[in-house]
Amino acid sequence: MNIQAPRGTYDVLPDQSAKWQEVEQKINELCRLYQYKEIRTPIFEHTELFQRGVGDTTDIVQKEMYTFQDRGERSLTLRPEGTASVVRSYVENKLFGLPDQPVKLSYFGPMFRYERPQAGRMRQFVQFGIEAIGSKDPAIDAEVISLAMEVYRSVGLKRLRLVLNSLGDTESRIAHKQALIEHFEPRIEEFCSDCQTRLTKNPLRILDCKVDRDHPLMETAPSLSDYLNEESRQYFEEVKGYLEELGIDYVVDPNLVRGLDYYNHTAFEIMSDAEGFGAITTLAGGGRYNGLVEDLGGPESPGIGFAMSIERLLLALEMEKVEIGQSQNLEVYVVAMDQSTKKKAFSVVKDLRSNGISADMDFAGRKLKAQMKSADRKKAAYVIVIGESEMESGRVAIKEMATGEQQQVSFEEIAETIQTKKSLEE
Ligand code: HAM
């Protein structure tokens, strides 16, 4: 049997890569505007990092990690997410010592989760994420959310919904945890074995359970919003105030719990309301993690961040029928009528490229008609035909494919004319 790509993975083929590059370009530009600097961490880490960082009772750690032993018998794991690695690096490299806190970091790269693959859920997927570590200013929460929204807006998505919740501070969470235990304990044997373990270890996770989600006790479970202390309530109000200042609409959903253990205070997800989306409509998720740096051995350094997968962003573009990646289409196709004019065509192509204009020609011995077809397939904006008469007169016709219009110019004027046409289009 032929070897295929592993389940839940895929190839980005050349006809798709322009979209990926455009998304990445937009992201890089936004990170520059917001001053989030890229950090690159290893693709695999010590397994313990995720056990401690993401949390032992989460689905990610219990069921979804790609964990293996290396030849030195260390337990390593392909990263299922980026936050734990970024925080590890912040601690290990003593970035908490930098005078400019918060340290604002961004990352872009593959993550791995052993999940059941479906549209928008892959086993290898690419996350873009940011982390602002070293500040508990509610304004930075709004900044992080704002950057996430801007990424989607910059590629042309409109049908977005920002869902917000507060998970409160430790004190609020302990009070809520106690209430959850009291709520579920009397009927815990009706729940799956995972939930039975979660009851003592982390009852909040029960609310996240995919198996028992229709159990009647789920709906009546005590909501964290009723257990927020004054400080947590106040913090949440301030975050909302900053969002309003930025004109960012949101809905508060007290049932929003995230699938990772490190969160407190602000938690958020951005969903797509585009028609045709399957079961998975969450485009991005994030939140505040005030204890994580300490859990991983650093000094008190509150943080917040988010991550989004590019796969889901591209899916949302498809659903909203937004086309991107066109800027990489071919600008000029140069046709050589026959072998005698090929060298001239070759040098015209070179000259165009030197002037920053994308240009291409035939390398398969095609006749004139077939070359024209090839130019069409490549979506060339302009075509130039070079035959004997052009060689004699020293002039060529630049044909604009969209309109059929032609303009006669000398060989020397080709690049300049195209440049002028391009700048008129912009
Ligand atoms: P997460 O909610 O596990 O959070 O994932 C964030 C985003 O990654 C999701 O909203 C989705 O876009 C994408 N994603 C997750 N799993 C898959 C998958 N199997 N296939 C495709 N896309 C997927 C985190 O990872 C946190 N580290 C986010 C964060 C950063 N919180 C604070 N800072």
UniProtKB/TrEMBL annotation:
GO BP term, example: histidyl-tRNA aminoacylation
Listed name of the protein: Histidine--tRNA ligase
Main location: cytoplasm
GO CC annotations, alphabetized: cytoplasm
Source organism (scientific name): Planococcus salinus
Source taxon at top rank: Bacteria
Protein family: Belongs to the class-II aminoacyl-tRNA synthetase family.
PROSITE patterns per the UniProt record, alphabetical: AA_TRNA_LIGASE_II (PS50862)
Classification lineage: Bacteria, Bacillati, Bacillota, Bacilli, Bacillales
Binding site for L-histidine: 81-83, 113, 127, 131, 258, 262-263
Coiled coil: none
Entry's transmembrane regions: none
GO molecular function term, any single one: transferase activity
Record carries keyword Protein biosynthesis: yes
Subunit structure: Homodimer.
Catalysed reactions listed for this entry: tRNA(His) + L-histidine + ATP = L-histidyl-tRNA(His) + AMP + diphosphate + H(+)
EC top class, as a word: ligase
Subcellular localization, as worded in the UniProt entry: Cytoplasm
EC nos: 6.1.1.21
Aminoacyl-transfer RNA synthetases class-II family profile domain location: 1-317
Keywords tagged on the record: Aminoacyl-tRNA synthetase, ATP-binding, Cytoplasm, Ligase, Nucleotide-binding, Protein biosynthesis
